[in-house]
Amino acid sequence: MKVIAVLSQKGGSGKSTISINIARSLQLRGYNVALIDTDPQASAREWNALSNEDFFPVYGCDKGISEKEIKHLEKVADFLLIDGAPRIEKSMTDAIRLADYILIPLKPSQFDIWACKDSIELVQTRMQIDDKLKSGLVLSQVNKKTNLAKEVIQFIQENFEIPLLQHSTGSRISYAEVLSSGGTVFESQSKEAKEEINQITNEILKELGVENV
Ligand SMILES: Nc1ncnc2c1ncn2[C@@H]1O[C@H](COP(=O)(O)OP(=O)(O)O)[C@@H](O)[C@H]1O
Ligand SMILES: [Mg+2]
């Protein structure tokens, strides 16, 4: 089982949106997928409760991730997505320890970079002792009509060791709409959003050395 943790202490950066959609992208490729929601606000659990379709199991976990749960999931899942909490707390350090790949979403604004600096530094520190751990920053909710992202991209490349993914999510109403109706972008009409999530997933699989199917 490969563990992909989507983390950042900044609320609203797109963790739940990205983890649910990547989980669905992997599921549609034929993988067995599970998702652990570590946020006490429980967005992924709410989404799962709304969903009519049986996509993939969503487990709640507010006080650290239990070893027992992981042992069980290892037997049944090819991929485990961890949807991170907006705080540096036990579930975040557990996720960092368990992860094969850590994805840090951030909105293209300097405020958001400052707000997730501690998460980035925690991941960088872990990478120094775990040389198999892979990670990436992904821009989320990019307004493709403005140049704002360019400055942010340059800042990230100059200041962080974690690589920036080539693909990002655009600011698209379809992301919000589908989640609030219990679906994912793969059930929406938005070809662009599907393409974005598939490309982000491809980049992660490549880093993990998993053959793309
Ligand atoms: N690419 C996107 N385009 C438009 N809205 C988005 C996008 N990604 C997330 N959102 C919206 O932004 C808000 C925060 O996203 P969410 O995934 O809940 O962030 P987090 O889990 O990091 O708190 C939600 O209302 C969500 O619907
Ligand atoms: Mg969330």
UniProtKB/TrEMBL annotation:
Database matches in SUPFAM superfamilies: P-loop containing nucleoside triphosphate hydrolases
Domain CobQ/CobB/MinD/ParA nucleotide binding: 4-166
Highest taxon, organism lineage: Bacteria
Pfam families: CbiA
PANTHER family per UniProt: COBQ_COBB_MIND_PARA NUCLEOTIDE BINDING DOMAIN-CONTAINING PROTEIN, P-LOOP CONTAINING NUCLEOSIDE TRIPHOSPHATE HYDROLASE
Protein name: Partition protein
